[in-house]
Amino acid sequence: MIAERECLNELVDVVEIPDNYNNVTTTLSISDPLVQGTMNGLRTTFDHRGLSPTHEMWTALEAAIQVMANMAQGSCDPVYFVSSLDPGVGKTTAMIHFLRELVQSKDHKGISALICLGRLEQIETVVREISLQDQDFAVLTAKDNIDLNSLGCGCPEEGRVLFTTQAMVEARCVYKSFSEVKALQFRGQVRQVRIWDEAILPGRAIAVRRDSIASLLSTLRGSYPGLTDALEELFVHLRGLVDKTIIDVPSLDVTFDTRLNDVSKFVIDQPEDQRKAVQDLWSLMGHKAVVRVDGHKGPTLVDYRTTLPEDIKPILALDASARVRATYDLWERGRGDLIRLPSATKRYDNLTINVWDHGGGKSAYRGSGDQIVKGVLSVVATKPNEDWLVVHHKHKPGLLDLPLEVSKGLSGNHKVRFLNWGAHDGTNEFKDVSNVILAGTLFPSLSHYEGLARLSSGRPASTGLLTDQMIRNTTLGEHSHMILQALCRSSVRQNQNGECPPVTAYLIASPRSGIKGLLPKVFPGAHIVTWEPVKKQPQGKVADAVGYVRNWFEDDPNGALAYKEVQRAVGIKDRSNFRTTIRHHKMFQVALEELGLEEWGTGKYLTHLRRIPVAFGVAA
């Protein structure tokens, strides 16, 4: 620590970070009492924990702390600031120490802070760690979270520090400016310090599937017959549209005088996807949308809607994944109101990632789940007395219940814990586990990445088509973010002199996903090796069909192979028999995923196979 302190003392008094796109300059000064006090507290905590950040890490932490201090002083430019430091380096700890200094400072008695977190459990964790007096903070979440909302002073407008969720901020700011939302204020005044923990986006991507429109028809027809007929016409119209068509979504809300709030009442008890479809569809009405064809899911209307008001700036986002996500690059170039603070990359020389080139999506869970279970059990058996963390797809009807099946196969005193995707980026519960398995990965649809790229760059459908490269970069950046966050639930997140401790990781991912090629950038210095715990090959005519398809696409990788040609090649005359024994066979479906192929057709039916388009984010 002495060496690190000497490095800090050698820092120049003022560092300027220019913004290349809007000429905004942020001044960092180490003479600020809030900065000094926070840094001193941070050093003490790191000393106590035995942590030794590198010089670059200290510089990056101080830059984030200085932005917090500038907000408290009212000297911040109205932009989004993004601090990117890998998990475990100390961003959240720095925030906690700053808030303590702010509350204790006699020179900042009227200055308040808004802390926006991703999940309710994160609020509990931060509140517990920060240890403020009850009168100094409050919590604002949904009304039914009585215990959580009662923490602190119990009155959101009376707590100097207000903890809330990002979703709550977005919901409260619908059709309002930040300064108009009384619930987020401190004694009638806008909170000056605003911190967004983890990933930030200025809005939400919109993707309304054609089938989602169909699901609304029976729900709305009784109360809105005219509107329902018009929605049905839109449903029929979408069927014949080709990928990348830009259309005008009719203003049915105006034509039939149907407000979103009124229609939402009819789907309040419906599944979440229906409720979301109504909200997104009403957001699109009267605007242009681009149609993306999501493979067998069919046409999807895509655009985005802004959820964060302009005057929420300045705000500081602490996102560990910012260095690997393309969304910030697009935002910086396209919107121009984002400044990246100094960053520092942790080394991962002590991390070994074993990669199994096997389908890891939900279709693989359905088609070869037994193989995935065997693979997980085989590696757990190599270290029977050590702790393991397995990250998996959340169980749903028709989908493999991996925790259940793995648990059945365990013997002895194996210590295996499970975490599902969706909850993989908000917990430190497993920070001491040095063996981790990512048993499959998430693969959102093409339309999701299209919407995300448009949102980040500020390019709605009305501005025309995006380049394939923009969507590809967005996709690969989100893959990188997902893998970084998931592996860093384990002891990978720990920081020992700028490196992670020894960790062994296992990753299941299709070679066509491009994930294996991303790993050296996501985890600099890590050792990437091949892992093949289970090898099961298709047999008989299924094997013949897979072999024919593989060879065909080796000769014509950009072509479209008709199913009837595959049927003829394997010698099956009856189309129904081919569909049952080959096309719908689990091993054939898994092989298609591993080959990076999707079903495709120009009309109502999916009649061909083709490579998943490059725009889907697949590595070439």
Protein model, in words:
The protein is an alpha/beta fold. The chain has 22 helices and 22 strands. The chain has a 7-stranded parallel beta sheet with strand order 5-6-4-7-12-3-13, with helices on both faces. A 6-stranded parallel beta sheet has the order 16-15-17-18-14-19, sandwiched between helices. Strands 8-11-10-9 form a 4-stranded antiparallel beta sheet, with helices on both faces. A hairpin with a 6-residue loop joins strand 1 and strand 2.
Entry keywords:
single chain; alpha/beta; six-stranded parallel beta sheet; disordered N terminus
In a few lines, what is going on in this structure?
This protein has 620 residues and is of the alpha/beta class. It is globular, with a radius of gyration of 26 Å.
Mean pLDDT: 89
Strand portion, in percent?
A: 15-25%
List the uncertain runs. 1-30, 615-620
Helix content percent band: 25-40%
Q: List the total number of helices.
A: 22
The order of strands across the largest sheet is 5-6-4-7-12-3-13
Biggest sheet, open or closed, and with what strands and sense? 7 strands, parallel
Query: Structural class, from helix and strand content?
Result: alpha/beta
CA-atom Rg in angstroms: 26 Å
Amino- and carboxy-terminal Cα gap: 45 Å
How many beta-strand runs?
22
Based on CA inertia axes, which overall geometry fits?
globular
